[in-house]
Every structure is written in structure tokens, then in C-alpha cells.
Design goal:
- The protein is mainly α.
- Helix content is 48%, strand content 2%.
Length: 220
């Protein structure tokens, strides 16, 4: 016949501070260790993981609000603000361009006035120089300065050579017809320097004989 043996819980002798020596060997039944008590070396079971939110659901923000609830920006107001700012920038750019154009116009006007003044001064000096050359050629050839045409000394000298042979044989007055009893009193049309420029030497001689060069030759 088998005899069941029972085993009692292990006993532990615990020294108790301040207990008399005669009671130190008292044996106490050890209580089962508390699994949740600190210092036992055993860990408490972790909390079960939370289920993931369904797909497409708004994710909560740091303060617990969803993005749809947290975004309160007035995008229309923002668009109007940026549109206004862009218009102000364009107006400023247009104004700057207008100022630059005004400065450029002022510079161009000053440059044009300076060029005109320079051209006028150059023309005056040229006319003055031509007058001196005419006086010089007239003194050298005997041709009246008023009859000379040209803008350079060489042109004036060449024109004087054309007119010089006509000076000595020029008539002293207008040609008067000798036949008939009627005397013409109509003045002879006098030629100008511009007329001589387009005439040949033969035409000039013919005009001299007709008295049409008297004014240019200084004949009264």
C-alpha cells in the first residue's frame, strides 16, 4: 500500500532585527513571491498593442486633433494677399522703369542739344573759313569773291580759273539792240552761283555776252 507523502512549503529562517537570540531560529512559512512586487526579478506582462486605425482615417495631430480640424487657413485670403503683393511689386517696377526712361530721355535730349550746338558751331567756322578763302582767291585772281563758288580752297581756285578769262572781256553794261527805234528797258536776268554750277563753259561765255553775269562780276 502506497503511502502519500505530503510536502509542506519550504520554511525560511529570517533574522529579525531587534529580536532576542532565542527567537532567531523560529521558522516561518514563506509566502509565495508577488509577481508584481519590485525587486523579485520578474517582469509584469506588457499591455496588448493597440489596433491600427483604418486606412484613410485622418491621423491625429500632436494635440489630439485631426488634420482637417487643425488646418484653419483661409486660402482665399492668402491668395488675395499674394495677388495684392504681386500687384504692388509690378507697380513699383513700372514706376522705376518710368524714372529710368525719364533719365534716359533727359540724357538723349542733352546729347541732341549738344550735337546741334556743335554742328552750328562747325557750320559757322566753315562759313567763316570759306569767306577767308574767297577773299584770298579774289585777291590772287582778280575775280570778285561774290562770284566764287565752292566749299574748299581747291574748288574756289578752280572756279576762279573758269571766271578769270571772262573778267577782261566782259561788257560794261547790258546788251542793247541797235536795230529799230524801240529800246528795251527790261532788266537782264542775272545768274547766281547755283546756276553756274550746272552750266558748261560755253554756256557761261554765252551768259557773259548777254550780260547775265554782270552782278556776279561786279559790273554795274
Amino acid at each position: 500500500m502506497n503511502t502519500r507523502q505530503t510536502h509542506s512549503a519550504p520554511t525560511t529562517t529570517l533574522p529579525t532585527p531587534g529580536m532576542p537570540p532565542r527567537f532567531e531560529r523560529l521558522r516561518f512559512i514563506g509566502a509565495p513571491a508577488d509577481a508584481s512586487a519590485p525587486g523579485t526579478g520578474e517582469q509584469t506582462p506588457a499591455d496588448p498593442p493597440k489596433p491600427a486605425p483604418p486606412a484613410g482615417a485622418p491621423q491625429p495631430t500632436g494635440d489630439g486633433a485631426s488634420p482637417a480640424q487643425a488646418d484653419t487657413t483661409d486660402w482665399k485670403a492668402e491668395a488675395r494677399k499674394w495677388e495684392t503683393r504681386a500687384k504692388e511689386n509690378k507697380d513699383a517696377a513700372d514706376k522705376l522703369a518710368e524714372i529710368e526712361k525719364s533719365k534716359l530721355d533727359a540724357v538723349e535730349l542733352a546729347q541732341r542739344e549738344r550735337d546741334e550746338a556743335q554742328a552750328e558751331l562747325t557750320g559757322f567756322k566753315t562759313r567763316e573759313q570759306v569767306a577767308k578763302w574767297k577773299a584770298q582767291v579774289s585777291e590772287e585772281t582778280g575775280v570778285p569773291a561774290a562770284a566764287l563758288s565752292g566749299s574748299t580752297l581747291e574748288e574756289l581756285q578752280a572756279h576762279a580759273e573758269v571766271l578769270k578769262p571772262l573778267i577782261g572781256s566782259a561788257p560794261k553794261g547790258p546788251v542793247v539792240p541797235t536795230e529799230g527805234t524801240h529800246t528795251s528797258t527790261a532788266p537782264v536776268t542775272q545768274l547766281t552761283d547755283d546756276d553756274l554750277k550746272s552750266m558748261t563753259p560755253g554756256q557761261i561765255n554765252q551768259a557773259r555776252r548777254e550780260g547775265r553775269l554782270n552782278k556776279l562780276l561786279g559790273i554795274r
